[in-house]
Amino acid sequence: MQIPAISVEDYISKIPEERQAVFKKMFDIINENLPQGFQQGISYGMIGWDVPLETYPEGYHCTPGSPLPFMGLASQKNFIALYHMGMYAKPELLNWFVEEFPKHSKRKLDMGKSCVRFKKMEDIPFGLLAEMAEKMTVEEWISIYETQFKSKLKK
């Protein structure tokens, strides 16, 4: 479910009212804890944090001319989804998150390759999200992206 929006504020205003405060808190925690250099905005029908073209002019190979995506936050029909490309690309970060999650939440981790789904708003591990957001810099993400994704395209 994509929410058509022109800004972060517009996106949040279109989320069901009972979910807005929690979603805004997640947004603020991620936004405040990401290392400098990521740019937030609306991308792919959700709130996203990207590496801007000014920093990485080559941009995203899947969508030429667009910034390199890193994280996304979306309100879906039955859950809030947090997408983190760094966890998809760096097994050490994924393993850390999977091991830490039970220490911060009584819920079972509901996760895909890069997507963590939060169905119960009252049990979102905000402290863990803050820690996770701090763990990868723009430079590290670009390096991982170039070695793991772009290098495969050149073969």
SSE inventory with pairings:
Blueprint: H1 8-13, H2 17-33, E1 39-43, E2 46-51, E3 68-75, E4 80-84, H3 85-89, H4 91-104, E5 115-118, H5 126-134, H6 138-153
Antiparallel strand pairs: 1-2, 2-3, 3-4, 4-5
Helix pairs in contact: 2-5
Question: How are strands sequenced across the largest beta sheet?
Answer: 1-2-3-4-5
Provide the low-confidence segments as ranges. none
Shape: globular
Question: What is the SS-derived class?
Answer: alpha+beta
Give a nutshell description of this structure.
By secondary structure, the chain is α+β, with helices and mostly antiparallel strands. The chain has helices at 8-13, 17-33, 85-89, 91-104, 126-134, 138-153; strands at residues 39-43, 46-51, 68-75, 80-84, 115-118. β1 (39-43) and β2 form a beta hairpin.
Structure description:
With 155 residues, the protein is of the alpha+beta class. Helix content is 43%, strand content 18%. The protein has six helices and five strands; from the N terminus they run ααββββααβαα. Strands 1-2-3-4-5 form a five-stranded antiparallel sheet. The model has no long low-confidence stretch (mean pLDDT 93).
Keywords:
155 residues, 5 strands, 43% helix, 18% strand, globular
